[in-house]
Amino acid sequence: MVIDEINLKKLESLNNKKVIEYVYEAIELCKPDKVTVITDAEEDIAYVKNLALQNQEEKKLAMEGHTVHFDGIHDQGRDKENTRYLVSEKVDWGINVNSMPRTEGLSEITEIMQGIMKGKEMLVAFFCLGPTHSPFSIRAMQITDSAYVVHSEEILYRTGYEEFKRLHDSDDFFFFLHSAGRLRDGKTVDIDKRRIFIDLVDNRVYTVNNQYAGNSVGLKKLAFRLAIQKANREGWLAEHMFLMGVQGKQNRTTYFAGAFPSACGKTSTAMLPGQTIVGDDIAYLRNINGTMRGVNVEKGIFGIIQDVNQKDDPLIYEALTTPREVIFSNVLINDGKPYWLGMGKEIPETGENFSGQWYKGKKDSAGKEIPYAHKNARYTIALNELKNADKRIHDPQGVEVSAIIYGGRDSDTTVPITESLSWTHGVFTGATVESETTAATLGKEGVRRHDPMANLDFLTVPLGTYINNHLEFGKNLKKTPTIYATNYFLKDENGEYMNGKLDKKVWILWADGRIAGEFDAIETPIGRIPKYEDLKMLFKRELNKDYTKEEYIQQFSIRIEKYLEKMDRMQKIFSKIPMPEAFTKEMQLQIERLENAKKDFGHIASPFAFVEAASCAE
């Protein structure tokens, strides 16, 4: 029998028919040689870590606690092409979504996974998304033949065996079945049969023939998709957001949530000097007694390591270069030490990387030079290993969220920070986030991508439904958080950035001061903006920098014509999507305010013009 008495007893102790049904179903389908059930016990977690080394999914490095994992050369990122939602009926998404009929998807994935674990050990593990003993908690069950996957999830998530015991016989949990598939030299062979199928009917995920964590670690972005659907059904929010503690006057901590598309400053905002971090990626937000409260779904970070260096990221860099538990992936290893792109150190000319044995000048099958480390190389580390970890990371009641920030990458339109006029206006602001592509990543600079709430890639409900859930959520709060929009990438007429990397600290502290009633603001058609005197004081106090009136005018002048062009783009997008009436009305009001301002001030209006106009109106 593939499951012995000890492991069977671990399963039966959960007293959950659905769990046992899933395990036997997976055994019948995948046909492993052995089944091991992982509980919350330290010896079980140690078993997984040792198994990852024994199976050569990870290798020990020179520094204590450090290991490295290599994905295959063609398995280095999320596979959007083969990620599909399985649905039982046709859905009008309003956005581009890869979906397929559920019966067809289940038939295909069942055929691919038939007998896929022969000669392997099946691991059955249990986790909790969000803190344990919490109204936010969602239980998750992972079955996989990869010890690296379970080890990663153990770092990133709270263990959940005891949480499942508290479920009794409920089937309210997420289920993930994964196999790395057939291996050669420890790497997945059948990449052409890579599939990531998300069953939206049964809250299940099937992922096969992959090792890269974005595809294989089910509790990451795959669980997030299931959570978005669950949140929209139950009236709460599952968001692609960080949670941070902003440190204000007299030891005041104000908690902010923030959503930014890729390469728009999300991590650097969450890790601002002098502030604390609750989470860097995914937040669950609920109405608790009329107040928005939020938790970090995770307890660790699966972070992009490129450009992490001692100068710009001192806290992360220190954690990654001192003894503690860290899994590096797809970096260069030389003499037991990891090297990555942009780390600010001299790089060896040989070593081991995702392509195998590497040497400077090595080329792939297409004749393209292979870099010493992949641009999507990662690190996996527990949050509590960082010195700026917030003390309330594991609070079952979460933290009170007083502000939400939506960020984008915009060279010519959006000012560095604005405060929304209302909750509805703030939701509209988040829904119209745009991000410009960069030449370094996509080959063509300045192409605007619409990315509502920085969540477009993960939506499992129609966009109109998703936006409406935000609007309704705010209606039921006694106290709504203030919503802000930021843009760190405004450029001058010479194509130079108007702001330094650390200027964002001033914008965040201004928002904190607004929430505390310390600063007034200037009302404009696109929201409230800071007064010059307040920014001048903050720049001097926080960055010891003289902030000139000329800089202020350059950065905070409202480019009315550019905003109207953006509204034209948004109208074209949303005219094709069924949207809530409140959202459509908010867009009309935004356009009217901009058109009126254009009549009064022309194409561009200095912030002082709005001050003067308000003064005359009085």
Average predicted local confidence, pLDDT: 95
The amount of beta strand, in percent, is: 25-35%
CATH architectural designation of the largest domain: Alpha-Beta Complex
Query: Which shape, going by the Cα principal axes?
Result: globular
Count of domains: 3
How large, in whole angstroms, is the Cα Rg? 25 Å
CA distance, first residue to last residue: 84 Å
SS-based class: alpha+beta
State the share of residues found in helices, binned by percent.
25-40%
Provide an overview of this structure:
The protein is globular, with a radius of gyration of 25 Å. A hairpin with a 5-residue loop joins strand 2 and strand 3. About 1% of the residues have low confidence. The chain is α+β, with helices and mostly antiparallel strands and 618 residues long. It contains 19 helices and 35 strands. Helix 3 crosses helix 5, helix 11 runs antiparallel to helix 13 and helix 11 crosses helix 18. Helices cover 32% and strands 25% of the residues. The protein folds into three domains: 203 residues, Phosphoenolpyruvate Carboxykinase, domain 1 (3-Layer(aba) Sandwich), CATH 3.40.449; 287 residues, Phosphoenolpyruvate Carboxykinase, domain 3 (Alpha-Beta Complex), CATH 3.90.228; 84 residues, Phosphoenolpyruvate Carboxykinase, domain 2 (Beta Complex), CATH 2.170.8.10. The strands form nine sheets. Strands 1, 4, 5, 6, 7, 8, 9, 12 and 13 form a nine-stranded mixed beta sheet that branches. Strands 14, 15, 16, 17, 18, 19, 27, 28 and 31 form a nine-stranded mixed beta sheet that branches.
